């Protein structure tokens, strides 16, 4: 039996991978809408878009963390009010909603992985805007709403840390990278697979509604991620020099600890995402990353 899926934010880093993943499911009929085709802050447009779909995957978001600090109302209009419009439309039509959130809803002062039910407490405007969206989903869709928090997302279809490191490697002998922020680098393609599996489990009643943590297993720092990206790409990881966050002051505070626990996947009968370093091995084989790595190696040879 064919299931109709709607993916919002379909041209984004994650949205493109979700569309690609669902394209391989012969029972999925998929509509992808990018921001120029669906403004989720428009409730009338949202209602029209959701109608007729059984599962909605919301990848639309304001993702400019520092920009949110300067324009919190605008960020909340997308990440909070816009998500409320989606949740209300799903409630009215009976659709399931899989909504992407972030580790930034936590204060980042922990020492152990945050479980799904840990108290929230964002330290910046972006986190507050995303928490508003979470609350809308959980309030309006207590039985059919799924909040999937992710973090440190990278992939082939948009700007991201791993790609930036490889690009900078072509132009700089050494790079200073923050070593006092801890998190879980997560490949967008692996998360897309997990979202498709969660949606399928939700359709059969196997996966309870609520919060799931869609991050890689394990943990590292930005410096650790950069060094492993270099090592796997045939570059000298010692070119990455560890520094403190104070070397790169930003308008928005960053949580120092964003490691999340993954207990709720077992309730859904699904395995959590693989370790971050295993994901990175697979991701760097993608042409977009492989090409950047080759250019960086060529540059190093000519120094």
Automatic annotation (TrEMBL):
Question: Which intervals hold domain RmlD-like substrate binding?
Answer: 6-286
Q: Which UniProt keywords apply?
A: NADP, Oxidoreductase
The UniProt entry's sequence similarity note says: Belongs to the dTDP-4-dehydrorhamnose reductase family.
What gene codes for this chain?
Answer: rfbD
Q: Which Pfam families match?
A: RmlD_sub_bind
Does Transit peptide count among this protein's keywords? no
- Its domain of life reads Bacteria
The UniProt entry, under NCBIfam families, shows: rmlD (TIGR01214)
* PANTHER family assigned to the protein according to its UniProt record, in alphabetical order: DTDP-4-DEHYDRORHAMNOSE REDUCTASE, METHIONINE ADENOSYLTRANSFERASE 2 SUBUNIT BETA
Q: What does this protein do?
A: Catalyzes the reduction of dTDP-6-deoxy-L-lyxo-4-hexulose to yield dTDP-L-rhamnose.
The reply on keyword Phosphoprotein is no
**Species of provenance:** Streptomyces dengpaensis
For this entry, the protein name equals dTDP-4-dehydrorhamnose reductase
């Amino acid at each position: 039996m064919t299931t109709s899926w709607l993916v919002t934010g379909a041209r984004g880093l994650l949205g493109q991978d979700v569309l690609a993943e669902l394209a391989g499911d012969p029972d999925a009929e998929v509509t992808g809408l990018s921001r120029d085709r669906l403004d989720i802050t428009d409730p009338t447009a949202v209602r029209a878009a959701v109608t007729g779909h059984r599962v909605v995957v919301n990848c639309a978001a304001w993702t400019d963390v520092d920009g949110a600090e300067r324009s919190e109302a605008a960020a909340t209009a997308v990440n909070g009010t816009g998500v409320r419009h989606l949740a209300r439309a799903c409630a009215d039509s009976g659709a399931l909603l899989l909504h992407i959130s972030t580790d930034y809803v936590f204060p980042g002062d922990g020492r152990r992985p945050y479980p799904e039910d840990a108290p929230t407490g964002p330290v910046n405007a972006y986190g507050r805007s995303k928490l508003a969206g979470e609350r809308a989903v959980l309030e309006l869709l207590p039985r059919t709403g799924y909040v999937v928090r992710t973090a440190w997302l990278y992939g082939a279809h948009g700007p991201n840390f791993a790609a930036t490191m490889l690009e900078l490697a072509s132009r700089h002998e050494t790079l200073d990278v923050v070593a006092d922020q801890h998190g879980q680098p997560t490949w967008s393609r692996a998360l897309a697979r997990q979202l498709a599996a969660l949606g399928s489990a939700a359709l059969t009643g196997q996966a309870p509604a609520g919060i799931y943590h869609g991050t890689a297993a394990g943990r590292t720092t930005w410096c650790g991620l950069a060094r492993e990206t270099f090592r796997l790409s045939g570059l000298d990881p010692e070119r990455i020099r560890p520094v403190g966050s104070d070397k790169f002051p930003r308008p928005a505070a960053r949580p120092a600890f964003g490691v999340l626990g993954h207990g709720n996947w077992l309730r859904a009968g699904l395995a959590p995402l693989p370790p971050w370093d295993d994901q990175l091995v697979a991701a760097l084989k993608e042409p977009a990353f492989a090409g950047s790595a080759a250019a960086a190696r060529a540059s190093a040879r000519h120094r």
